[in-house]
Amino acid sequence: MAWLVRDGEVLASVELADGRAARRRGLLGREDFDGVLRLKARSVHTVGMRFGIDAAFCETDGTVRRVVTVQPWRVTRPQLRPTIVFEARQGTFREWNLRPGDHLEVR
User: How many domains does the chain have?
Assistant: First the structure.
C-alpha cells in the first residue's frame, strides 16, 4: 500500500490512477472516498460526482503549486503542462493545512 507523506508525516493512503481507464474513472461512482487519489492530468472535473473534492496540483518533484476545492459538476482551469494531481474529499486539505510550496511524496 502507498502512503502520502509531507515532512515525514503520513497523511493518508494513496490510490494510484496510472492507467488510462483508472484516470478516466477517477472518483466517479463512489459514494465516499477515504484517502487520496493520485493521477497525472492537466485539469480535473467533478461531472457526475456525488461530492466535492480538493485537488492539489503538484510539480513532478511533489511540490504543491495550487490547491483548489471543486464542487460537484465543475471543471478546473487547465494547467499548461500535465502535472501530478492529488484528489481527496472536500475539506481534507483544509484539515491538513495543505498549502502551495508544501512537498508531498508517495511512499
Answer: 1
C-alpha to C-alpha distances, 30 to 5, 48, 51, 74, 79, nearest whole angstrom: 24, 10, 9, 17, 26
Q: How far apart are CA 15 and CA 96, in angstroms?
A: 18
Say how far residue 34 (Cα) sits from the centre of its chain.
12
pTM of the model: 0.90
Domain containing residue 59? 2-106
pLDDT tens figures, 49-84: 888 999 999 999 999 999 999 999 999 999 888 799
Which CATH number does the domain housing residue 35 bear? 2.60.120.1140
Contact status, residue 44 vs residue 36, Cβ threshold 8 Å = no
